[in-house]
Amino acid sequence: MTVPQSSLTFYTSKFVNGVRNYLYWRSNYLQDTLDKSNHVVLQSDHYIAIGEHADLWEGRMYNRKVAVKVLRGGSSSNSEFLTNFTERLEYEARTWQHLKHPNVSEFYGLAFNFGHMPALILPFYDNGTVVDYVSEKDNNARLDMVTQIAQGLEYLHGMSVVHGDLRGSNVLVDAEEHPRICDYGLAFIIEPSEFTSIKTAGACRWTAPEIMNPPENATSTNHSLALFTEASDIYAFGMTTLEIFTGKIPFSQKRNDSSVIFYVLGGGRPELPAFFKEKESLARLVQECWDQEPGRRPTSRAVTEKLLANAHEENATSGIGNPSKGWFGTSWF
C-alpha cells in the first residue's frame, strides 16, 4: 500500500515538532536543575574556610546542609571574562551533575546570587580532608583510603574526566568514612591571571614534569591545558598517596617551589616513608605512578587492580576470605 505524500509530510512534521519541543524542554529543564540560586540559603554572614580560588560557606538546600563554594575572580581589562567563564562553567557542570560514584563528590549545581562570580553547590563533608582525617589513623586505614581514591579516579577517567588538580586537600571524607574526590575538572576553566588567589602550597608539588616543562609549541592556554592528562593525574595520585601516609605535602623539606620544580625536572622524587619498605609492592606502584615518562605510568584501572590484587593477597594471608572486600576488609561494592 502506498502512503500518500501528504500523510508522510504530516507525520514527519509532527515528529520534527515533537523532537524540537523535547529538546527545548530538556534544555530548560537542565538549566533549571543546574541553577540552584533560589534554593540555597547561607547559614552565616561569614565564610568558614578560604581556598586558593574560592571562599567556602555553609548553606542549606532542600533542608540539607550543603557547601557553597563562591569563586573569586574578575577582570577590569576583559569585559567578556564573566560571560565566557560562566558559559564554560555551565558546560562542564552539566557533566559533573551526572557523575555518581561512592568515591567521587556529588555536584548539585550552581548559584549566581552570592556575588558577581558563580558559586558551586556541593555536599558538605563534615570529616574534612583525607589527610586530616587519617592523621590519627593507622597505616592500614590510610592504605584503605588510597585504594578507594584509586577507584574514584578510575571512575572519572572512565567517564573521560581528567581531574587536573588531584591532591590531599581536594579529597574530602563523607559521613560513611569514604574519601570523595572533589574539584575535578575545575582547573581547566580557572585562568590564574583572572582569579584572586590565596597563597597555598604550590601545585607544582603534585604536578607532573611534562606540565612543568611543556614543549615549545605549547604557547597558548589551550595547548598548556592539553598537557593535563590521565597520566598526569596518575602522577598526582602517587604524590597524594605519599601525602596521606606522611601527613605532609610532597617535598615538605623544600620551602621554595622553584627548587621543587628544578628537582622534579631533574628526576628527583620524595623519599618514601618507612611503611613503604614493609609494602614493597606499594612502594613499587607509587614509583611507577611518578615515572618521569607519562607513557610508562600505569592507568588508573591498572592502579586499582594492583591495589585490590594485593588486598586479596593480604586477606588470604590473614584468613579473610571474602573476595568482595577491599584491602583491609572494607566493602567496595
From TrEMBL:
<feature type="domain" description="Protein kinase">
    <location>
        <begin position="42"/>
        <end position="315"/>
    </location>
</feature>
<dbReference type="Pfam" id="PF07714">
    <property type="entry name" value="PK_Tyr_Ser-Thr"/>
</dbReference>
<dbReference type="InterPro" id="IPR051681">
    <property type="entry name" value="Ser/Thr_Kinases-Pseudokinases"/>
</dbReference>
<dbReference type="InterPro" id="IPR001245">
    <property type="entry name" value="Ser-Thr/Tyr_kinase_cat_dom"/>
</dbReference>
<dbReference type="InterPro" id="IPR008266">
    <property type="entry name" value="Tyr_kinase_AS"/>
</dbReference>
<keyword id="KW-0547">Nucleotide-binding</keyword>
<dbReference type="InterPro" id="IPR011009">
    <property type="entry name" value="Kinase-like_dom_sf"/>
</dbReference>
<protein>
    <recommendedName>
        <fullName>Protein kinase domain-containing protein</fullName>
    </recommendedName>
</protein>
<keyword id="KW-0067">ATP-binding</keyword>
<dbReference type="GO" id="GO:0004674">
    <property type="term" value="F:protein serine/threonine kinase activity"/>
</dbReference>
<dbReference type="InterPro" id="IPR000719">
    <property type="entry name" value="Prot_kinase_dom"/>
</dbReference>
<dbReference type="GO" id="GO:0005524">
    <property type="term" value="F:ATP binding"/>
</dbReference>
